[in-house]
Design brief:
It is a multi-pass membrane protein. Residues 1-137 form the MSP domain. There is one protein chain. The protein is α+β, with helices and mostly antiparallel strands. Among the domains are: 17-119, Immunoglobulins (Immunoglobulin-like, Sandwich), CATH 2.60.40; 163-179 and 194-216. 22% of the residues lie in helices and 35% in strands. The chain contains 3 helices and 11 strands, in the order βββββββββαββαα. It has helices spanning 119-130, 163-177, 197-216; strands at residues 17-19, 22-26, 34-41, 47-53, 59-62, 65-68, 72-80, 89-99, 105-116, 134-139, 146-151. The strands form 3 sheets. Strands 2-9-8-4-6 form a 5-stranded mixed beta sheet. β10 (134-139) and β11 form a beta hairpin. α2 (163-177) packs antiparallel against α3 (197-216).
Length: 217
């Protein structure tokens, strides 16, 4: 089975793996003013990366461009240098991936960066938002009482993962249980069902990201 090559993604569609998916800073907590982005290269070729930001004067990015060797990862340190705020501040980072030695973008990923005035205030707002209820009072003349009809909007959007997420997770699980390329017991298995070690590692990594995303919802 052929391995992935940079030439397959000239349209910029190469999947980019970065964790976490967003950065949250708290103005009243100095320990959160420094965050780390980990960029993974599960491929068999070297990648070059470059970090852009919608508000570059607010951040100090250590090693905003560099090289990631095959099947390796790199940590990018992001420091927020302007935390004097009384309201929520929203910025965006863009991570662009290039084939090593070339200038054409073969993949990119956007990471949201949020500065909150206070962790307690943010948690309280999130709690209030999740428990918000839309109450519609409907008065009826039934025994002189008042009937209240509840619509719990806090439950909207908590119906579980989408169909695409389930399908992607199922594909990753199937990839992990398929036989390994080069195994002596797989002679009777069609060659297109044999996966390499790198492909299984990629499936395992994607399944891990899906699991973390589902657990956060």
């Amino acid at each position: 089975m052929r391995s992935l090559q940079p030439s397959h993604f000239t349209d910029g569609s190469l999947p980019v793996f970065v964790f976490p998916q967003s950065l949250t800073f708290y103005a009243d907590e100095q320990s959160t003013h420094k965050q780390v982005l980990t960029v993974y290269n599960p491929y068999e070729f070297t990648l070059r990366f470059k970090v852009f930001c919608t508000a570059p004067k607010r951040y100090i990015v250590v090693e905003s461009d560099g090289v990631i060797k095959p099947r390796c990862c790199i940590d990018i340190v992001v420091r927020h240098s302007d935390v004097q705020t009384a309201k929520t501040q929203l910025d965006k980072f863009r991570l662009q991936i290039f084939e090593y030695g070339l200038q054409k973008v073969i993949g990119q990923k956007e990471i949201m960066a949020v500065l909150q005035p206070s962790r307690k205030e943010h948690q309280q707002m999130s709690k209030d938002k999740s428990t918000t209820r839309s109450v519609t009072s409907q008065r009826t003349e039934n025994s002189g009482g008042t009937v209240e009809q509840f619509t719990d909007s806090g439950l909207v959007g908590q119906q579980g993962p989408s169909l695409w997420v389930i399908i992607m997770a199922a594909v990753c699980i199937i990839a992990l249980v398929l036989p390994l390329e080069g195994d002596k017991y797989t002679r009777s298995v069609p060659h297109y069902l044999l996966l390499s070690v790198n492909q299984k590692l990629l499936a395992s990594f994607i399944l891990g990201l899906i699991t973390m995303a589902v657990l956060k919802t």
